[in-house]
Amino acid sequence: MARISRREMLKLSGGGAVAARAGGIASILALKQAPAYAQATTIHWLRWNDFVPASDEVLRKVIVPECSKALGIKLNIEMINGNDIQARTTSAIQSGTGPDVICALNNWAQLYPESVADVSDVAEEIGKAQGGFYEESRVVANDGKKWIAVPWCVLGAQLAYRKSWFAEIGYDAPKFPQTWEEYREAGKKLKAKGRPLGQTVGHSFGDPPTYAYPYLWSWGGKEVEADGKTVVLNSNATVDSVKFAVGFWNDAYDEGGLAWDDSSNNRAFLAGTISSTLNGASIYLEAKRKPAVYLTETGAPLWQDILHAPLPKGTAGQFGYHLPMSNMLMKYVKDPKAGKEFLRWITSKPVYQAWFDSQQGYSVGATTVWEQDKLWDKDPVMLPFRTAARAGRFPGYAGPADRRAAEVLSKYIVVDMTAKAIQGMPAQDAVKWAHDEVARIYAA
Amino acid sequence: MAVDSVAAARPYVAAPRRGPITRVLEHEPWFAFFLLLPTAVLLGLFIAYPFIKGVLLAVTDAKVGVPGNFVGLQNFAVLMNDSIFRIAVWNTILYTAVTTVFKLALGLWLALLLNRHFRAKALTRAFVLLPFIIPTVLSTFAWKWMFDPTFSVINWTLFHLGIIRTRINWLGDPGLALISVMIVNVWRGVPFYAISLLAGLQTISPELAEAAAIDGARPWQRFRYITWPLLLPVTMVVVLFSVIQTFADFQLVYVLTGGGPANATQLFATYAYQIGVGTGLLGEGAAISLAMFPVLLVVVVVQLLYIRRVETH
Fold first, then answer.
1. What is the DSSP string of A63-125?
2. How far apart, in whole angstroms, are the C-alpha atoms of residue A320 and residue B219?
C-alpha cells in the first residue's frame, strides 16, 4: 500500500492556496503544524472487524501513523464483531463516555439522533466534493434536518455463483437467470444435482435483510407508504411473494439456511456445497486470497469459477439493499472540532483512497465518485459491485429510514415473515403476523 | 503491716485507655455493621441500584440517550399485545422447566457415581467440571459448529453409524432449535448440579447407609429413605440457583441462534436485549427484563418456604 505524504495530500485536496484560504485540512498542512485544538488529541474510533482483513491492516499500519502526522491526532482504532457494536454504542451513550467516533451499520444512527453531533458541515463538504452521496447512504445518515453521521461506504450485495455449474444447466456466462422464476428453475436443477442455492433467513444483521427486503420490493410489496405512517405490508403482492418463496425454498435452497448466520453461506460456498448465494464479495476475495486452499472439484482454483450477478427481477422491478456504513461523532465528545476534523480527513478522497483500494471492490464509497475509480479496471469479476448502490433502497421504504424502520429491521420481522412461511405457516397468516407487528411499531 | 498499707504499696495499674475505634469495634452492633458494610455496598451497587434503575426505566418511554417520560404501565401493556414477547415467555418457561429436570436427574446420577470409590476419582471429578469452567461463549461456539446444518459433526457421526439417512437441521427446524439449545444448557449445567450434590452427599454419614444395609435395606431403599431426604435441602438450594440462572439465560441462545429461526428460540433475556439494545427502546427492554421478576419471585419464595419446612422437620 502506497503511503500518502502530506505534500501529496495537499496537492490532491484541491489546490493548496485555495484550500489554505478556505481553511480545512489543506490549510493545516500548509502550516506544517496541527491546529492547537488537535494537538495531543486522541480519537477513539470503534469499528467492526472487516470481512476483508487487508482493510483493517491498512487502517492500523497506514492510516493511524498518517493521522498522527497530518492532524497531530493520535488515532486509536478498536475493531469488534459487527453484532456487538450496538451494545457498545448503547453503553457509551448511557454512560456519556466511550469511543469518540462509532461506525454505524444499516440505519443505526437513526436510533441515536439525540446522542450524536451534528456533522452536516463535514457531510455536505464531502458529498459536494465527491459527486454526491448515494440515496441509500443519505437516508441512513440524515434525519431529514441534519446529518447525524458521515456516510462511509456501501457494502454491495450481489449473488456469487459458480460459473461452471450454471453453465452445465444452460447458463453460459455472462448469461444468468434474470427473473425469480428463471432463478427458481435453475435452482431446482442445481439442487437435483446436489448443488442447491444458499441463503440465510436467520437472525443476523447482514445477509438475511439484504435478501428479504429487495425480494419483497421486487414483487411490489413494501412496509409503509411514503407518508411513513400507513402500513401496507399485508397486500396481494406480499402474499404472492411469500407463497413463491416457500415453493422456491423447497425446490432450490439448502434447508440449512434457516439456521445460518452471516458467515455460514461463505463457508458453504467455499466448501462447494452451494452453487449461488447473496453476499458481499468476501467469498470471491477469500477464494482469491487462498487459491491453493479453495479448489473446484477439478482441482482448479475456486476463484476462477466465481462470478457475480444482481438479484433477479420481480413483477415490480429489480432492487437491492446494500449495507451502508457511516461514522457517528458522539455528542459526549469534549472536543467535537477534532472529531470533525478527523472525519473530514479520513473521508477525504486522498486518504479514503488507501482504504478503498484495500477493499478491492468489497465496498463502494458512499459517494458516486468512486464508480469512476481505476480500481474497477483491475478485475472484471468485481464489476457488478461498481454501480450496485445505485439501485439500493433501504428498509422503511417507501417511508423514511427512521427509528421505526430500524425497529422493524432489528426485530427481523420481514425476514421472519418468510421464515415462518417456510416453516409451515400459511403465507396469508405469516403476512398478517408481520403486518400486525409492523403496524404496532408504526402506531407507537 | 496493715492490709491497707499492702494494697497501697501495690503499683497502680491504670485501666487501658480505649480509643474511639476500639470502643466502636468492641460494641457488638457497630462491629457487625462494619463487617457487613462492604457486602452491603457491593449489593447496593451491583444488585439494588441496577434493579431500582430497571424498575424506573420500565415505567418510562426512555430510549438510548433520551431519559424519557413517565408512562406508568404502558410498556407492560404493549408487551401483552406483542406476539414475540408471548413466544419468549412460553419458550423461557419451557426451556427452564425441561432443562432443570434433566440437569437435576443427570446431576444427581453423576453425583452418586462420583461419590463412590474408584481409581482416578479426583481426576474424574475435575474432568466433570470442565463444561462449567469453560467460558460459555467459547463452548457455545463449539456447539454451534457441532449443530451446523451443513458441517455438523453430530450429523456426520449419526449418518456413518447408519442412524440417520438425511441430515438433521438442528438449529434451523423450529422445534429442534429449542431442543438443541436445551441440550447445550443441560450439558453446561449438569456439572454444577453434580458437584454441588456431591458436596451434599459427602456430608451424609456413610454409617447410616451401612446400618440400613445391615437391616436389609436395598440400594434403592437406602437412597429413597436415607440419602434423598438428607440431600433435599442442598438439592433445593441448587435448583433454586439453577432456575434463576436458566430463566435469565442469554449468552447461550444469543450465540447459537440469536433467537431465531423466526423467534423459535427467543427467550426473555434475548428479547430484552433485542429491544433494549438492538432497537434502543430502553424502557420497553427494561419492562421485558422486569417481567421475569414476579415469576422468579414466586419460584424463590416457594422454594425457600419449602426448604424451611424440610429443615424444620
1. IHHHHHHHH-EEEEEEEE-GGGHHHHHHHHHHHT-S-SEEEEETTGGGG-GGGB---HHHHHH
2. 69
Angle, alpha carbons A382-A389-A439 (nearest 5°): 135
**Is A255's CB within 8 Å of B172's CB?**
yes
**Strand pairing report for A323-329 and A101-105:** antiparallel
- In chain B, residues with a C-beta closer than 8 Å to the C-beta of A106 are none
Does B151 sit within 8 Å of A271, measured CB to CB? yes
Query: What would the pLDDT profile of B274-305 be if each residue is shown by its tens digit?
Result: 999 988 999 999 999 999 888 888 888 888 88
Please give, rounded to a whole number of angstroms, the shortest distance from the CA of A96 to a CA of chain B: 9
- Chain B segment 154-193 residues within 8 A of A by beta carbon are 167, 169-174, 177
Please report, in tens digits, the pLDDT of each residue of chain B (313 residues total).
Answer: 444 555 555 666 666 667 778 887 788 888 899 899 999 999 999 989 989 999 999 999 999 999 889 999 999 999 998 899 999 999 999 999 999 999 999 999 999 999 988 888 888 888 888 888 888 889 999 999 999 888 889 999 999 999 988 889 999 888 899 999 999 999 999 999 999 999 999 999 888 888 988 988 888 899 999 999 999 989 998 999 999 999 999 999 999 999 989 999 999 999 999 999 988 999 999 999 999 888 888 888 888 888 788 777 6
Q: Coil, helix or strand for A179?
A: strand
Is the ipTM here above 0.85? no
Question: Parallel, antiparallel, or unpaired: how do β-strands A150-155 and A197-198 relate?
Answer: unpaired
Nearest CA-CA distance, residue B291 and chain A, Å: 19
* Residue of chain B with shortest Cα separation from A198: B150
| Geometric angle at alpha carbon B192, from B191 and B196, rounded to 5° | 110
Strands A150-155 and A323-329: antiparallel
